[in-house]
Design goal:
The complex is a heterodimer of chains A (about 220) and B (about 1000). Chain A has about 220 residues and is mainly α. Chain A has helices at about 10-35, 55-60, 65-70, 85-90, 100-110, 130-135, 140-145, 160-170, 195-200, 210-215, and one strand at about 115. Chain B is about 30% helix and about 20% strand. Classes of the chains: A mainly alpha (about 220), B alpha/beta (about 1000). Chains A and B meet through strand 1, helix 6 and helix 10 of A and strand 2 and helix 31 of B.
């Protein structure tokens, strides 16, 4: 009677056993790593917008300040998005015929706003306030990344609760001098005041910055 | 009911509790009575496994969704003064039956999201009543009529304009013969001007001013006493003795918020030198009666006799005629009358006698005479020139109906009035309307009248058009639009203008023109100041110096017929729905009525004795008939109701209110204004009535919950209510943060008006759940007002206590949460982290105050309101999440951020309930600052902690209630003889 299993079956069974042994840790690894991937967190993925606005061109190229468009960032929880009128301050003079800017001109003519797609989003139960972070020396770049290098805007940081807490637990090293808050290329150098000095300059209050009630309400 | 013999040393909420019925006690002893129904029907194992599998899959599906977080829509051009996510505030006024109360509307990105009172306005002083606050939902109501219609068929403005043009030419020819205007009370100077202009243009036209909740008794009474319908401006802060007969000072009086504020300034003996004394004599419990020092129950007929007897004692026997003598015989001169009148006389010049608006004119006239005789005029009240507009060409509604029936009405213009529903059915308005060739109804919705008139035109909401209105003291304010119109509505001013000319001045120009003629100085500046402040300075009605007309006022009233045991029915405004105009407002429908705690319903309120006589229980359906007309309605037994008196609340049973209000409750209008003796008979029916009276019941001993005493006890020992335990505490008691938040609630101030409950609901995005869910004890209000009784079932004392999260320092809820979803923060707040909550409900189980609310369903998603009407600063809670009072954490956060931004100590924070409260019962603030208001209130000798023995160290404490009974009466106030109480 011929053998039921040929010699190749030895190999197949070994491979199967190895795979079976790898499946459990592999699955666990996937379970653990998957939510942390850029894909799952929407990081580094440019969002299609009605107008392919380039921060790189406007900020790095032309040197426009963040606050020219995001005007309420220092006073309100919401940084604000530029109204059509802000775009048209320049684009009524330059690139007046550009096809790319047709939606902006149309918005001005019809009075119907441009609908942008959100790039950075926090869950509805998180209440982030831009103004207090700016006032206390947190730069735009700390959360939004190097926007000045983005041809198309994408989410640069994880913006998970851990991301927030890392800073809230030890804010000093993340603070920067007032002149560098809107500078997305700034990096800590030897001349930068120490974290303790910065905490003092900004009067970072002596409160528990990890209280749930600070962000959740 | 097994027994009504209650122990006087107990607080009780309902007769079932007072009688300690075993079945009732067993049901409330359960932690989650709402689960009893499900636990009674066990599910088999297979079913459980199936459901668990479904839950697993659906939870997985919930994780699916769009990868990107939605859209951002910036404005094309940002209007001036609008900063994203920063609120704007605009003053306006809320007008109810003509009288205005100042409001300030909070806007988010141009959309109204909250209504507060206007501190500049004399009728508000910063407080806003439930109607003013709830008009937010009326504004956003998806059921508001979107377009005009002619005989039920959608039409357009051009056709309306053509029809109005035909009207103009026809009426011009005939001098306005057959033209009638029907409105409510009008105080708006601009609208009054337009009405006068129409009457001038058409000399034969007539104007009818009619309100379902009538104040004509007050006006006619003043006319009897003074020759003209003068109005009164009260100075309750000066009244040492206040006597209210069938009082509606806090319920329906046009100045109710202001009266409550003035009244409360004399009620806390730790802050006022001389505490006032309040007597209430009434047939059905009112807000004033429930906080009075003495509340005497008298049937409607007895009240007339009592007033006549008081007139005898105060004005001298010359006032007495046969009617008064008869009255005295009937009332039997109750033993308390003498001491009360002596008290009134002793407080000469510091006394005020108030008569409810539903009393007949002669009673009002008598009260004017009594007040004058006691030297009250100029001291505790002033007479002022009439605030409501009047004209020599006015007609009563009944005269109008007669004209309509006699085909003498050619053209009827109904402005924001709904007589087809609200007028007494017996008058036959609805049938008479069919005889009118041209009728036009300008209504908020396609309501009963709107559907019966030839033309229906949607009325612009007060926030969509310009107008003006005067307050109870005559102070005028401008109503400015808060938004562009959501629907194609028309204002009264615009429509009346079109009756005069084809292109009248628009409403803004008309209102400006009114005030341009009356303001001095640079008009543009004055106008802008008036808009910003919400009031026009110096516009209050002048004091009248009219002298009392001796003869007519002293005529005693006639007594109504019927014997002492004859039933009587009182028709009153619903505390939430008024005359029915708010029936489509879910906040108001689900607002527990102050004294019954009923929601979504309006049963007949009957006395315990009558219930015993007819063997009626709560929810039993009875037939109430007067003559041929009858209505089937459930009954609710209300302790403190006069024995043979039935109260029917108007405003329910609407047929065309909208999807929320249609068919809710019972319509009593078929019984209105009928002569004859009412009869109540039991039927076999029973309906479940949703009342929150037993929900969140605390079964501890009374001093642990609500402490109260008399002024004499307070004088003997000011700290009679103080906590006993002052030992140093072993564990942390002072939070480490820079601020320590706390609240003090003054029980002496609370009048139970519910303004705080609606304010909390609006501020904190609290869902409405509907009647069936309330029956399962799932209402979501974070702040409730508990109402307790003490004493006998027929004539109990009542007490009110607002209860909200105590933010315990040693919070029992925190210890049992398995996921750390409810934790303490560094500023002493007991915070609820919704995104951590998994819905075990252990915290609610362990909360001794029963202030936690659970989202059994995704109530937040199912609310009948657009997304932009929510408060953007507060999470809309998801299904399966616990929630509770957060001390308005969003307001604390806002103050904290503003202070930190400028590196200053945190400033004043006011919670929503505190702002809305007309009597300033709530004080909130930073306990770490010894100069803060809350620190000072906590120093009050009356300060005590609720359920102090639980050792929870609550941050919300109460100031004990002190009442000021007349010693001469208090001595002989035993509960009524047992024979009167059913056994």
């Amino acid at each position: 009677m011929a053998a039921i299993f040929g010699p190749a079956a030895n190999l197949a069974s070994k491979v199967f056993l190895l795979l079976a042994a790898a499946a459990l840790p592999g699955g666990m690894l996937l379970w653990w790593r998957w939510p942390k991937t850029d894909y799952a967190r929407n990081r580094r993925e440019a969002v299609a917008q009605p107008v392919p606005f380039s921060h790189q061109h406007h900020v790095a190229g032309l040197g426009i300040d963040c606050r020219f468009c995001h005007a309420s960032v220092e006073v309100s929880s919401n940084a604000g998005l530029p109204p059509t009128y802000t775009c048209m301050t320049c684009h009524s003079q330059i690139w007046t015929k550009a096809a790319l800017l047709a939606p902006v001109r149309e918005s001005l003519i019809t009075g119907i706003p441009i609908v942008w797609r959100r790039v950075t989003d926090l869950p509805d139960y998180v209440y982030f306030n831009h103004s207090i972070h700016i006032a206390k020396g947190v730069g735009c770049e700390s959360c939004h990344g190097e926007v000045a290098t983005m041809a198309l805007t994408y989410k640069a940081k994880a913006l998970t609760m851990k991301f927030c807490l890392d800073c809230h637990r030890n804010p000093g090293p993340r603070l920067r001098p007032k002149s560098a808050i809107f500078d997305t290329k700034w990096h800590r150098t030897a001349d930068t005041p120490s974290p303790a000095t910065l905490l003092g300059i900004y009067h970072v209050p002596d409160r528990n910055l990890t209280d749930c009630s600070l962000c959740h309400r | 009911m097994s027994s009504l013999n209650t122990r006087s040393d107990r607080l009780w909420r309902s007769l079932e509790e007072a009688a300690a019925e075993p079945g009732f006690l067993a049901s409330v002893a359960q932690e989650f009575p709402q689960l009893a129904a499900s636990l009674g029907k066990p599910v088999d194992r297979r079913q459980v496994l199936k459901l668990m599998g479904a839950v697993l899959i659906m939870n997985g599906l919930q994780a699916c969704g769009s990868k990107f977080g939605g859209e951002l829509i910036p404005a094309v051009k940002i209007p001036p003064n609008i900063i994203p996510a920063m609120p704007n505030f605009y003053a306006s006024a809320h007008v109810l039956d003509g009288y205005a109360s100042g409001i300030v509307v909070k806007h988010n990105m141009g959309r109204p999201i909250k209504v507060d009172g206007n501190p500049n306005h004399p009728a508000s002083l910063g407080a806003a009543d439930v109607f003013a606050q709830a008009q937010l939902l009326d504004f956003y109501d998806p059921d508001r009529a979107a377009g005009l219609s002619r005989q039920g068929i959608p039409s357009d403005r051009a056709s309306l304009e053509k029809a109005l043009e035909a009207q103009r030419s026809a009426l011009s020819g005939s001098g306005g013969t057959g033209l009638r205007l029907l409105t409510g009370t009008v105080t708006s100077p601009t609208l009054a001007g337009r009405i006068d202009a129409v009457l001038e243009r058409y000399p034969e036209a007539r104007w009818v001013s009619w309100d379902p909740i009538s104040r004509s008794g007050v006006r006619q009474g003043a006319a009897l006493a003074y020759g003209r319908p003068l109005e009164t401006r009260l100075r309750l802060e000066r009244a040492d003795v206040l006597v209210a007969i069938d009082g509606d000072l806090f319920d329906t009086d046009p100045g109710r918020s202001r009266h409550a504020r003035d009244f409360s300034s004399r009620r806390n003996p730790s802050r006022t030198a001389e505490m006032s004394r309040v007597y209430a004599i009434e047939s059905t419990p009112t807000l004033l009666g429930s906080v009075a020092d003495h509340r005497f129950i008298a049937g409607p007929a007895e009240i007339i006799g009592i007033t006549a007897a008081m007139a005898d004692l105060i004005l001298g026997s010359s006032a007495a005629d046969s009617g008064a003598a008869q009255g005295r015989a009937m009332a039997g001169v109750p033993p308390w009358l003498g001491p009360m009148v002596a008290d009134m006389k002793a407080a000469r010049g510091r006394v005020f006698m108030h008569i409810g608006a539903s009393q007949p004119p002669r009673i009002h006239a008598l009260a004017h005479a009594i007040n004058e005789a006691l030297g009250a005029r100029g001291e505790t009240f002033e007479l002022i020139e009439p605030v409501a507009h009047m004209s020599g060409r006015q007609q009563e509604l009944r005269e109008l109906i007669a004209d309509m029936q006699g085909h003498r009405v050619e053209s009827l213009l109904i402005l924001d009035s709904n007589p087809v529903y609200a007028a007494p059915a017996d008058w036959g308005y609805a049938e008479a309307l069919r005889q009118v060739p041209f009728s036009l109804a300008l209504s908020r919705r396609a309501d009963e009248t709107g559907r019966s008139a030839t033309w229906f035109v949607p009325r612009a909401h007060d926030w969509e058009a310009w107008s003006d209105a005067r307050a109870y003291d005559g102070t005028a304010g401008v109503l400015q639009p808060q938004s562009l119109p959501l629907y194609d509505g028309m204002s009264e001013l615009e429509l009346l203008g079109r009756y005069i000319e084809s292109a009248p001045a628009d409403s803004e120009a008309a209102v400006r023109a009114t005030w341009q003629a009356r303001m001095t100085g640079d008009f543009e500046i004055r106008w802008r100041e008036a808009l910003a402040a919400g009031v026009i300075p110096g516009s209050a009605s002048p004091t009248s110096h009219a002298a009392l007309r001796a003869a007519p006022a002293r005529t005693s009233p006639e007594l109504p017929g019927g014997g002492a045991d004859a039933l009587s029915v009182l028709f009153r405004a619903d505390p939430s729905l008024w005359d029915g105009r708010f029936a489509n407002n879910p906040w108001l429908q689900e607002l527990p009525r102050p004294l019954t705690k009923l929601v979504w319903d309006n049963p007949l309120l009957i006395s315990p004795a009558l219930a015993h006589e007819l063997e009626l229980h709560n929810g039993d359906v009875a037939r109430l008939s007067i003559g041929q007309a009858s209505v089937l309605a459930p009954v609710w037994i209300l302790p403190g109701q006069a024995r043979h008196c039935i109260t029917a609340l108007l405003g329910s049973g609407r047929r065309f209110a909208g999807s929320i209000g249609d068919g809710q409750g019972v319509d009593y209008t078929p019984l209105l204004a009928l002569p004859g003796t009412p009869k109540l008979t039991k039927t076999s029916g029973h309906v479940d009535l949703a009342s929150t009276v037993h929900h969140n019941l605390l079964l501890e001993t009374p001093p642990e919950i609500l402490r109260h005493g008399t002024l004499a006890e307070y004088r003997a020992n000011p700290r009679f209510a103080a906590d006993s335990d002052h030992e140093p505490h072993l564990y942390r008691t002072v939070p480490p943060g820079p601020a320590v938040w706390a609240m003090s609630v003054d029980l002496n101030a609370c009048i139970g008006c519910n303004a705080c409950v609606i304010a909390c609901q609006a501020e904190n995005n609290i869902s409405v759940v509907g009647k069936s869910e309330v029956l399962r004890e799932r209402e979501m209000h974070w702040l409730r007002i508990d109402r307790y009784f003490e004493g006998s079932a027929t004539a109990p004392q009542s007490f009110l206590q607002p209860v909200l999260c105590m933010h315990c320092e040693e919070a029992p809820c925190e210890n049992v949460c398995p996921v750390g979803a409810t934790v303490h923060d560094a500023e002493g707040l007991n915070v609820m982290v919704y995104n951590r909550c998994v819905g075990t409900r252990f915290c609610s189980n362990n909360c001794p105050y029963k202030v936690r609310r659970f989202n059994f369903f995704a109530y937040g998603r199912e609310q009948y309101r657009p997304a932009e009407s929510w408060n953007p600063d507060v999470t809309v809670r998801a299904r399966g999440v616990m929630e509770k009072c957060s001390y308005c954490l969003q307001r604390i956060a806002e103050a904290r951020i503003a202070a930190d931004r400028d590196s200053l100590p945190v400033g004043e924070v006011k919670t929503a309930c505190q702002v809305a409260c007309p009597t300033q019962a709530f004080t909130f603030g930073n306990l770490a600052d010894p100069s803060s208001a809350v620190s000072q209130r906590k120093q009050s000798p009356l300060d005590y902690a609720m359920l102090e023995k639980q050792n929870t160290r609550p941050r919300t404490t109460y100031e004990a209630l002190v009442r000021n009974p007349n010693p001469a009466i208090a001595a002989d106030l035993p509960p009524p003889a047992p024979g009167r109480a059913p056994a």
